[in-house]
Structures are given as structure tokens and as C-alpha cells.
Amino acid sequence: MSQTWRRTLAVGLAFVVAITGTFVFAYRAGRRVRHIRAENEPIRAWMSVPFIAHAHHVSAAALFQAIGVQPREPHDRRSVRRIAHDLNRPVPDLMARLQRAIDAAAQPPGSHPR
Amino acid sequence: MNDQLLAAVSQYGAPALFGIVAIAAIGVPLPITLLLIVAGSMISQGAMNPWWAIGAAGAGSILGDQAGYAIGRWGGSAAVTKLGGLFGRPAGMRAMEAKAKAWGGPGIYITRWLLSPLGPWINLASGTARYPWHRFLFWDTLGELTGAAVYISLGRFFSDRVMALYAVLGDLTWAIAALLAAVILGWQLVAHLRRPDAG
């Protein structure tokens, strides 16, 4: 096989890989877009309590109450990690409490949690 | 560190956004797209002014880009090599310089927001290639303000789905990069096959 053909074959293979990559990532993006409204937003340590409340359509006051924090005036935008540090409590513990409060808020009144 | 930067923008707003995007524009790999989406979400929550957010993100990015260009143009090859090595890309500056020359203004514009990982390298390469500063400033300003407006608006629209939106944009960026590579490789393939000695 000549040098020119080896080079053509290499470019051809790279072309096939690039085309495959285009379709794979475009398909993944499309699938994510279709489910963007159905998926729950994860809670992350960098998020503030009002940010989490907005993402899950619950009141920030209810979430502050769930973790036993009196919010600072006028706007308490401390991250979950910072609040955990201030309270000397583990971050996963606060995140779990926030998740439980969100789950409870999503239950209609009078229904039993599954 | 990314968590701390995101928390800083969430807590301190536009000034934190300005500082972080300026550092990222010089070449430090930071999650700027996510920061802009978060800023958009904060605007939707009433926690940030939209004009301040776009202004801070745009001004910070332009400042960082201009620093990169200045290092490339006036810092000398030693400074360029040092900066390139600092961020993990010591080689390939010559190739990037050739790309900066070939792509020109549209290349600068597109690497501000759509192919943003290439942005810091195009800044350095534009400087070393002595691309005219006033043209660089024009395309840079246009690109950075486009990027800030697009990502902040997306964050504002999908304010309750920032992480999901970030994942979508990540996949889209890879899809566009792969498509661009496919177009270039396809062009090369056709050129190879059309050569008289290929048949």
C-alpha cells in the first residue's frame, strides 16, 4: 500500500469517527432536551437555599426551616456548604434534609409518602 | 474549586462573575458556561440585574482576552511558551497561530462563545501573529457580548434546570466540534481522492 493511500485511509477513518461523534453527541443532546422538564434538578453543595427552592418550586422559608436555619436579612444566599460550615454540620446531612423537605412539599396534603 | 466559584457567584453576584471570567479568559480552565447559566437563573429569581450580569461577564472576558493578546504580542516567545506550558499546552502554538491567521475575525468571534475552549489560545496566537489590535478588539467584544447574552438568557429561560441545561450545552459543544472536524476531514478526503496519483 502506497504512502498516499495509507494517508487517505487514515483521513477516511478519522472522518468516520468525527461523523459518528457528531451523531452520538447530537442524539444525546436531543434526548436530554426532551427530558429536561421531567428530570429533577440535583442538589449541589454550591447552591444557595433560595436557588434550590426556585429549582424545585418550593418556598425558601420551608427549606430554611427544614435545616433549622434562621435566614440572614435581607437575602441569605450562602451556599449549602457554607451553611454546613457555619453550623458545624456535615454537608450530606443538610442535603438529605433539604431533599426530604422538597419531597414532602411535592406530596399533596393528606397523602401518605410512598 | 468549581463549587467555590459557583458559590461565590451565587453569593456575591456580578463582581464575582467579572473576576472569574477574566481569569478564565487568560486560559485557566473554569466552568464559565455554567457560571453564566447560574447568573441567568439568579436574574430570573430577582437576585441579579440582567444588565449588570451581561456587563460584568462581557467586560471580564474582554479584559482577560486583551491580557492574553498583549502577552502574545508584547510578551515575547518566552512568555508565550511559559503561559502555554502553565496551562498544559506547550506545543502547537505554531499551528494555532496559523489557524488565527486563516480564520481571522470570524474565528475570533466563534471561539469567544461557541468553541470557547480554543479562545485563550486564539488570543495568544492572534498576538504573536500580530493580528491588528483594533480588529481583535472588535471581534472579541462582539463575541464575548454574544456569549454572555446567549448563555445568560438560556439560564434565565431554564432557570429551574441549570444542571440539565449545562449537560445539554456540553453535548451540543462536542457535537459542533465533531461536525467541524468532519467537515475539515471530509474536505481533505475529497482533495486526496481527486489527486491524479490517487487513482
Can you offer a commentary on this structure?
- The complex is a heterodimer of chains A (114) and B (199).
- Chain A has two domains: 1-39; 49-106, no CATH class.
- The mean pLDDT of chain A is 88.
- Chain A contains five helices and no strands.
- In chain A, helix 2 packs across helix 3 and helix 3 packs across helix 5 (91-106).
- With 114 residues, chain A is an all-alpha fold.
- Chain B has helices at residues 2-12, 14-26, 32-44, 50-74, 76-86, 93-113, 119-128, 133-157, 162-194.
- Chain B is mostly helical and 199 residues long.
- The N and C termini of chain B lie far apart (55 Å).
- In chain B, 81% of the residues lie in helices and 0% in strands.
- Chain B has one domain (2-163).
- Chain B contains nine helices and no strands.
Give the SSE string of chain A: HHHHH
Tally of helical segments of chain B: 9
Estimate percent helicity of chain A. Answer: 55-70%
Number of strands of chain B: 0
Annotation, overall tally of beta strands of chain A: 0
- Which oligomeric form is depicted? heterodimer
- How far the N terminus sits from the C terminus of chain A, by CA atoms, comes to 67 Å
In terms of DSSP E residues, the strand content of chain B is under 5%
- Which outline of chain B best applies? globular
Instruction: List the uncertain runs of chain A.
Output: none
